[in-house]
Amino acid sequence: MIFDARKCELGEGPLWHPVAKQLFWFDILGRRLMSCQGDQPQDWLFDEMVSAAGWVSARELLIASETQLFLFDLATGAQSHLAALEAENAVTRSNDGRADPMGGFWIGTMGKQAEKGAGAIYRYYRGELRRLFGDITISNAICFAPDGRSGCFTDTVTGRVMRVALDSQGWPKGPPEVYLDLSDQSSGPDGAVMDAGGNMWLAQWGAGRVACFDPAGQLLRHIAFEAPHTSCPAFGGDALTTLFCTSAQQGMDAAARAAYPKAGMVFAAQNVAKGQAEHQVIL
Q1: Of these residues, 4, 96, 100, 190, which one is catalytic?
Q2: Residues 6+ apart with CB under 8 A from 115
Q3: Which residue positions in the chain have pLDDT lower than 50?
Q4: 3-class SS of residue 112
């Protein structure tokens, strides 16, 4: 079903706020944070592209933008700078991101034109922003096992989702290993989230679906949506059993947009699986 019919050029970064009981998401190219409260649509326009968020308190989000991580007050619109994010590099912007179980916030960057190897993946933890992995073209699929012992990410152009072991503070230990090799598929691995059982729900850009894989990497099922470019899923709702999914119109010509009139909207599938509550970012 359609959760929100407003069309995003590049919908991304859905976040179910477990305290506010509200879904937030981004239109990266539209420079907007979006939500709805009851029947009332909400959006906030920014001076630069914004892409991902974690929740800090009932009314505050940590938001990643082209040049920084900042604290955003949903009630007043006030912004407080937390850390520069490749601010000196005009080529890149933020992309996929998510909070980990230890309260850190992982954020990927990428070239605005998907320049090869221009991006990286970082972790912000208790005031420190540390670069974890470099030579990334399109950062995506950042998500974490429920026990906090491993995290995943992808460089979409490789078709492979990587998994890395984490220490007790949430920092990577040892090199990443291949969790999913989807390089023989025409679609690309995009955003992802893990459910309470440790299964990954992965949006497949170009395939119009979210695929579920068990911890061993075995495909369990697909959930199809009426948009070819499904970009990122999130679990939410009162019981965390609704699977939300953002989508995009980016890269679609006029004929494709006419063929898929719901592209760019936010979708919802109910009673899909039990999700994890999104983790709080600890500043």
Answers
A1: 190
A2: 91, 137
A3: none
A4: coil
